[in-house]
Design goal:
Number of domains: 1
CATH superfamily: MFS general substrate transporter like domains
Number of strands: 0
Shape: globular
Largest sheet: none
Order of helices and strands: HHHHHHHHHHHHHHHHH
Number of helices: 17
Structural class: mainly alpha
């Protein structure tokens, strides 16, 4: 029987997991930024590469700074709740400006400048809220059997949000004659901005009872930026998880990018509505898979579950690669009722399950690394460690955009615009195969290699959990 304290922790984890879902809503909106820059804003793909580079440099300064602020913050409103709310409001305002005002600026250079500056502000807000997802887990629960539930809730919410996105987008493309229409962006903002705000409120409620001094580990000395550098140097768990998170995020971002789904369903398979038909089966299958993965995590540890998920993902990607080589309809409409269609559905659903599994398991492992840092150094720096992974998240996402943009420039030219009505070409097929299958496989192989050196198995995490409880008992 689950005792009352564990029951309380479960619903708190369930609500707090909404924080990542809230930021994913804005990730969805920014996934459409390529269509906006090509369409209403009239920008070139090559310019996006320069914007992405500037953003990566900017990220290097902002993430540790915000992480340090989080670790130093102690207000009557808590440590994490203020950053969650501030981050949400910043993202709301900046994305609203990006998608409604930039296209009205007549001067091209000024439009690029405003886009870049507002995007930089958006990144600050995104960092504030996403860092709390990683760091806040450390106070929600220290139980190694409960922490994997974060992956279950988080992945389930993420799957539902992206499933809805996969169903909405084909409808908008059909209604407005493509995805580069301003009405598409207006509709998406009306859906995902209020949803993100609601999810943030739920997350704040989830962490409310734990976001106070009773659950913070006190540091003997003030936190400084050099603590961030020291943690990276001596914490083997952080080193290996950073490598895994980076490779996994690269796979997830490229394979899940709106441009890739447009390329697959609209151009290669000749029917963009197929993505909508597959959304619900993918959603249900992924939730079942992450439930099974959570059972493995609770029983055998998150390290082992992550390795199993990576192996499964590699197998599913190889299967899809073989299927696509055999059935490639080259722009002719693929019937899901055909043998080719059935094999494609099975292979594609398995790949999407793998991408969601590995991405979901990484998040609670970040909290494990933060707790391990307390054990080996005596310092609680969950904010700094959380922003390290936020930095990796955005750095790799920007890199993914650059890689994908370069591949599309090769396939359609620097001034080209990818949309559902574009004719099939072998170059576009190669872009899909590399972006959706080859790059993810490389990422999952890196996961498996990194986990060979990752020290936090199930037994070690029991030791870490006991150490955290000892620190909290001494503080209180």
């Amino acid at each position: 029987m689950i005792n009352s304290s564990k029951t309380q922790s479960i619903w708190q984890i369930g609500l707090f997991a909404c924080n990542n879902a809230a930021t994913n809503c804005y990730m969805i909106l920014l996934n459409m930024v390529s269509y906006y820059t090509f369409g209403p804003a009239g920008m070139l793909m090559s310019v996006l590469l320069n914007v992405a580079t500037v953003m990566r440099i900017f990220d290097g300064f902002t993430d540790p700074f915000i992480g340090t602020l989080i670790d130093k913050t102690q207000t009557r409103f808590g440590k994490y709740r203020p950053f969650m709310i501030i981050g949400q409001l910043i993202m709301l305002g900046s994305v609203l400006i990006l998608f409604t005002l930039v296209n009205k600026i007549p001067n091209t250079f000024l439009a690029y400048l405003v886009f870049t500056l507002v995007y930089a502000v958006y990144i600050l807000g995104y960092t504030c809220q996403t860092a709390c997802t990683k760091a806040g887990q450390t106070i929600i629960t220290q139980d190694p059997k409960l922490r994997p539930l974060m992956a279950l809730f988080d992945t389930s919410y993420t799957v539902i949000i992206f499933t809805a996105f996969g169903m909405i987008l084909p409808y908008l493309a059909s209604k407005y004659g493509g995805l580069s229409n301003q009405s598409c962006f207006n509709t998406m903002m009306l859906i995902y901005m209020p949803l993100s705000f609601l999810l943030t409120v739920l997350a704040v409620i989830g962490i409310w009872a734990k976001d106070n001094n009773e659950f913070y580990i006190k540091n003997a000395r003030p936190i400084k930026f050099k603590d961030f550098i020291k943690a990276i140097k001596h914490n083997k768990a952080i080193q290996m998880l950073v490598i895994s998170a980076a490779s996994d995020k690269l796979a997830q971002t490229i394979a899940g990018n709106t441009l890739i789904t447009t390329l697959l369903f609209g151009i290669i398979l000749g029917n963009y509505n197929i993505s909508s038909y597959l959304s619900i089966p993918i959603s249900l299958a992924t939730i079942v898979a992450i439930f099974l993965g959570t059972i493995v995590s609770r029983k055998s540890g998150q390290k082992k579950a992550f390795v199993y998920a990576s192996i499964f993902s590699i197998i599913s990607a190889v299967f899809l690669f073989i299927v696509m080589i055999i059935i490639n309809p080259k722009g002719n409409t693929l019937s899901l009722a055909s043998i080719s269609g059935v094999f494609f559905m099975i292979a594609y659903i398995l790949l999407r399950i793998g991408i969601s599994l590995t991405g979901g398991i990484v998040i609670p492992m970040i909290a494990d690394c933060s707790d391990y840092e307390v054990m080996i150094s005596g310092k609680a720096i969950p904010g700094l460690i959380g922003t390290l992974f936020s930095f990796i998240d955005k750095l790799v996402s920007s890199l993914a955009t650059s890689i994908l943009s370069l591949m599309l420039i090769w396939a359609i030219g620097a001034g080209g615009s990818l949309d559902v009505n574009m004719p099939y070409s072998n170059k576009l097929f190669i872009v899909f195969m590399i972006g959706s299958i080859i790059i993810p496989i490389i990422g999952w192989v890196i996961n498996i290699i990194a986990m060979l050196f990752y020290p936090l198995d199930r037994k070690k995490m029991e030791e870490v959990s006991a150490n955290i409880k000892e620190h909290l008992n001494k503080a209180n």
